[in-house]
Amino acid sequence: MKTLLYISLFSCISSAVIAQVRSGDETADFKLKAGTIFTSNVSGLNSELPFWLHANRDGTIDQSSANALLYVDGSSYLYKGRDFSVETGGRFISRYSDDSAINFNELYVHATAYSFKLSAGRFIDPLASKEDELSTGSFMISRNATPIPKVAFYTDGFTGVPGTQGIIRYNALFAHGWFEDDRYVQSPYLHQKYFYLSIKYAFFDAVGGIVHNVQWAGESQNPNVGQLPSGWDTFSTVVFARGSKNEDAPGGEQTNAVGNSVAAYDFSLGLFFKDFDMRAYRLFYLEDKVSTRFRSPWDGVWGLTIKPKNIPLVKNFLWEHINTKRQDSFDFEPYGTSRYYNNFIYRTGWTYNRRVIGNPLLLSDGADGSDDYPVYNNIIIGHHFGISGSLLADINFTIKYTFTRNYGVFEEQIITQYHYSECSDIPDTICADLRPLEEVKKINHSFILEVSSTIPNNESIKYGVSLTSDFGELYGDRLGLMVNLEWEIQDLKLRIKD
User: Fold this and answer.
1) Which end of the chain is more exposed for a tag (fewer CB within 10 A), N or C?
2) Is residue 356 over pLDDT 90?
């Protein structure tokens, strides 16, 4: 089905372009930009990059070495009317690094009708596009990994509920996608949905919603598991987060829910004043059904953004607090027993093309097809600050600073493990002699300063320089540099005469 999606995508793009070229009239507008990026650790071309040089860059940067990257990014409206439009686009990259690559990082078709949108292909996820540019990244789908190919039907932003004069609005998505083959469970599917409600009136905007992602189906390399249940019957259990009725399904998928779920309760409150706008948000991360009952109420993200209106130097300020410490553990258990982003059946976990799909502060070692859990650091407490603004009219800057206390995974806290009955009567709990958290804690500081501008008298040519650093016990001490140059062509019109 994934192959059929790409064939259909190429056919749709090519046929639409040919139809417009043959019309002998002016086609829709094109946008095109091309650029080059060079990144390196200053200690050597073969050294790993500092965190903020590779994190949240859509999987385009190889973190293991220096990168020399060329890209071409284009989009076009194949048809653009008042109530209906069709847009296609993509991003082609050629990267020279320790893990060189040539591919389409994006390739998509968007069809928009009134307030609804149907998208197919590989594209920046609509959930991720709502993330603030200064954020560490969504716990669901961030900008850290290459976009997952999928078909999605969703509202084009928040849409007013009829009869409420725009005071009550909703935002929803329903999607089906395909993970890659090179995984412990090969070629699983992605199910994704969310639903948000907003009450926006006068000076405030209150938003609440639930997000649900599931990895399901596929074929496990474990011979005792083999082919996992798929088909329409299984799909319905995935959608409603129910246990499988298939006797061939693993025991956990029968008693709990089908697949590997990554979900959240998501709330925010925006306040709009004369001199600034602000928004406070709170995401409760949900790993399983126990999480939905707020077993770990402190896990997730707290955040605050402030956008001044009359301060030219500062456009945006952000603070985030990230906590994944409890993970549904009982008081007598080690922290982190829910294995955030890892999964017992879907061993490759919440990763795609060897990168974490969600928040990049939870670290993966890049292992895909092995029996080992790839996310090796998922117990963290962090504070993150970001600020962006303009030094002059044509010089923009961004600063990010991230402080984290990292505790690895729960196994690192265990000295000796006992049978659960020696500590508790609750089945499937972990009873062990534990190390103090201070003995496994690793402190880290990550920093980036980005400065960008345009060539004088030519705003189509942009350039930028980024300086980054890591200090602490997690990565060691690193310094890094990024230089980029981009040429942008907007509203290019193609005219063909018969």
Assistant:
1) C
2) yes
